[in-house]
Amino acid sequence: LKETSFSIGLQVLFPFLLAGFGTVAAGMVLDIVQHWDVFKYVTEVFILVPALLGLKGNLEMTLASRLSTAANIGQMDTPKELWKMITGNMALIQVQATVVGFLASIAAVVFGWIPDGHFSIDHAVLLCASSVATAFIASLVLGMIMIGVIIGSRKMGINPDNVATPIAASLGDLITLALLSGISWGLYKELESKVYVNPLVCAFFVALLPIWIIIAKRNAATREVLYSGWEPVIIAMAISSVGGLILDRTVSDPNFAGMAVFTPVINGVGGNLVAVQASRISTYLHMSGMPGESPETAPRRCPSPCSTFFSSDVNSRSARVLFLLVVPGHLVFLYTISSMQGGHTTLTLIFIVFYMTAALLQVLLLLYIADWMVHWMWSRDLDPDNFSIPYLTALGDLIGTGLLALSFHILWLIGDRDSDVGD
């Protein structure tokens, strides 16, 4: 609570840059794989991209926020408490990852079928197997990394709220997108000769569900989330899938192929920054009591922008610091993409202006919504660690993808057309 703006910025800067370079790498991967056969002929895979990348917000970032709060208030100080928190939370995110991955594939099938009126059972099973396998493996790997980061941060005297969620994001986008691309490509190849492989893969991961449910139910800290934590992750998945539909409709047009490399970057940066802010506000509220029990931090149903960004409150200070990171951070990431000759868009001045406007507007909206949402959930006796970040990162995906697509369409209309750059 005694952190200054400088100390907040110093602690957030390195993880923020690390997370940003992770999203740049993910963007470069998406820019390459969008030309693979599985992305060309099963375009619904694009719809899965924001939904599965959003799992870092739905699961890993929520896990990081939950464990950061537990570490800060002394619930992980003994080996017994630590082991109990780890096993329960790891089992919980495997349950959530499998279910959300399955539902994301259904959403992708539906959103892909509605505009075109075309349905293929083979493609539907491919989407299901790819989504469930990617969600499960990514969550397992990232969950283990998150636990190590939080334990290490605590031992080094660093606030885990400032570093855990960005590091989850830095590796989350790249690992998830690489897994989705590789798995979907491999399963697409198997469609030609071994049709039974796809349903077997899907059935295998679904069959593991009862094991994870039993482990999660044995832990009091995760039992409640197992029963009541489904609404945010499912709604967040649906919101991200709408962003995926926008991505699918946009990059399927060769004139807008350049959008692919920037989508994980703008969405990742926005999601990372708002997750840090939501995690910090939640920890601040937990230090003053239990959800709904702290009159000195009375929830604000509709905070004014001035109180969110310009007050002397510690959370307002962190909001200013995080917002000020947007422009320099994106300039570094855009320069990195350009120097690596990624994408299909020349970084002209007018493009940078439109891109920065979209990025600033996205983060401004997200930080304001976070200030309202975390306090509102607290007033409703809901733990923001479990409920706020999925909504916020999903909104970040939808707002970021929508604003980016709008920017590319406006640039096309005013004559800024160079879709072949980097081919």
UniProtKB/TrEMBL annotation:
Gene Ontology CC annotations of this record: plasma membrane
GO biological process, one term: metal ion transport
Domain SLC41A/MgtE integral membrane: 49-183, 263-406
Membrane as UniProt keyword: yes
Transmembrane regions: 12-32, 90-112, 124-151, 163-183, 195-215, 227-247, 319-337, 349-369, 389-414
Annotated compartments: Membrane
Keywords assigned by UniProt, alphabetized: Ion transport, Magnesium, Membrane, Transmembrane, Transmembrane helix, Transport
Membrane topology: Multi-pass membrane protein
GO terms of molecular function: inorganic cation transmembrane transporter activity; monoatomic cation transmembrane transporter activity
Principal place of residence: membrane
Keyword Transmembrane helix annotated: yes
Function, as annotated: Acts as a magnesium transporter.
Similarity remark: Belongs to the SLC41A transporter family.
UniProt name for this protein: Solute carrier family 41 member
Originating organism: Colius striatus
